[in-house]
Amino acid sequence: MTIIKQLSAWEILDSRGRPTVKARCTLNSGAVGVVSVPSGASTGAAEAHELRDNDPARYRGFGCRKAVANINSEINAALVDRSIDDQHELDALLLALDATTNKSRLGANAILAVSLAFSRAVALEQGRPLYQHFATMQGLELSTLPRPTINLFSGGKHAGGQVDIQDVLLVPASAQTMDEALAVTFAVYQSAAELTLKKYGTRSLTADEGGLAPPFPNTETMLADAVEAIELAGYRAGHDVALAIDVASSHFYQDGVYNLDHEQLTSSALIERLASWLRRYPLVSIEDGLAEDDWDNWPALYTRISPQALVLGDDFLCTNPARIQRAIANQAANALLLKVNQIGTLSEAARACQLARLAQWRVTISARSGETEDDWLADLAVGWAGDQIKIGSITHGERLAKYNRLLEIENETHLPLAAWPGTSLRGI
């Protein structure tokens, strides 16, 4: 039994300068868990509801004082001095207290902050690392570290829309340790910065998640420049370093048409465009290749590209068990991008992860565009045996906090990097 002595919260700023929530959970034992939660810019329509103040005179309506007040008052009053068996019971109490389908009354940001702060406090109370606590929660043994997929170039909502798709990411495929993966990424990133300075005359200005964001004329150029940067760094594209893309198709989908690179494409035409990129570039993962509600065409996307690449769902799935079950039944994807704040509690995210595993999907644990310096995501990805982790680029302190935590965990555990799906070696 664990007894909560006090819950408190306050407003802080995320990596975009927007408010978010930080919470403290103090247990009767004296253990204290403090957590800050992220916020997304590229958000799916099915995500749990972030409670914002909507006061245009303060942070243009993005303030989180209401969510903070809900923790300090109603949630604290409901949970203080309660004997709680485990994370599942705590989260069930939070869901019952909110009593909405999307956490809109108390706010998913308030609920998640409490859920995570409680978990960190319990880990401290039990004297074990947070990653081990997360593993125990899922009944898992520690086995590998997640292989990073790391932002190189950004577009879409993360970079002012200079190109339609959201991200091109590096997959350090032949790296056998996290240390090696980050060193390889650094070399490619620097080559990319030099390349874009030469081609576009741009300094190393970065997008929300740290990716470089020069004025690419189209997606093809973005992909070709990524390959060139890999080769300039002295690596073999498709062997030492592969690519992944976050298409974020919902953001250029309107009235049944995809507006990509100044063309209007049907769902079938977009699938063929993605397939052509697979043939010509070393792509191993395609995220949100179709819009979040284009359900009828996701099975065709899966059939077309799954033999060569992961069909990864982000906005499409929203870490939502009901959407994941539907996608499994329809054979619409084979990988889940897991963002805990899309669903709002650790227990629900754990259920989403379990469903994906039962379907033999791969799981990528992901950060958000609006992040904080908190590093709990690294522990979650290790504890929940994430196949991949998506944090952002190797710039910006809120990203580096998580990469540095992964290096620390690697130093403690000596765990190997997870193999890429379908390979017997750690590299592709």
UniProtKB/TrEMBL annotation:
* Biological process according to GO: glycolytic process
Which family would the database say this protein is a member of? Belongs to the enolase family.
Lineage of the species this protein comes from: Bacteria, Bacillati, Chloroflexota, Ktedonobacteria, Ktedonobacterales
What InterPro entries does this protein's entry cite? Enolase, Enolase-like_C_sf, Enolase-like_N, Enolase_C, Enolase_CS, Enolase_N
User: So which domain of life are we looking at?
Assistant: Bacteria
Which residues are listed for (2R)-2-phosphoglycerate binding in this entry? Q166, K339, R368, S369, K390
Q: Name one GO molecular function term.
A: magnesium ion binding
Q: Where in the cell is it found?
A: Cytoplasm; Secreted; Cell surface
The active site lies at E209, K339
Q: How is the cofactor bound?
A: Binds a second Mg(2+) ion via substrate during catalysis. Mg(2+) is required for catalysis and for stabilizing the dimer.
Pathway, according to UniProt? Carbohydrate degradation; glycolysis; pyruvate from D-glyceraldehyde 3-phosphate: step 4/5
Per the UniProt record, which EC number(s) apply here?
A: 4.2.1.11
Signal peptide, first to last residue? none
Q: Which UniProt keywords apply?
A: Cytoplasm, Glycolysis, Lyase, Magnesium, Metal-binding, Secreted
Annotated Mg(2+) binding lies at D246, E287, D314
EC top class named in words:
lyase
* Enolase N-terminal domain sequence ranges: 4-134
User: What GO cellular component is one of the record's annotations?
Assistant: phosphopyruvate hydratase complex
Q: Which reaction does it catalyse?
A: (2R)-2-phosphoglycerate = phosphoenolpyruvate + H2O
Q: Which cofactor does it need?
A: Mg(2+)
One family name in Pfam for this protein: Enolase_C
The protein's matches in Gene3D superfamilies, at most eight in alphabetical order, are given as: Enolase-like C-terminal domain, Enolase-like, N-terminal domain
Q: What is this protein called?
A: Enolase
Give the SMART domains listed for this entry.
Answer: Enolase_C, Enolase_N
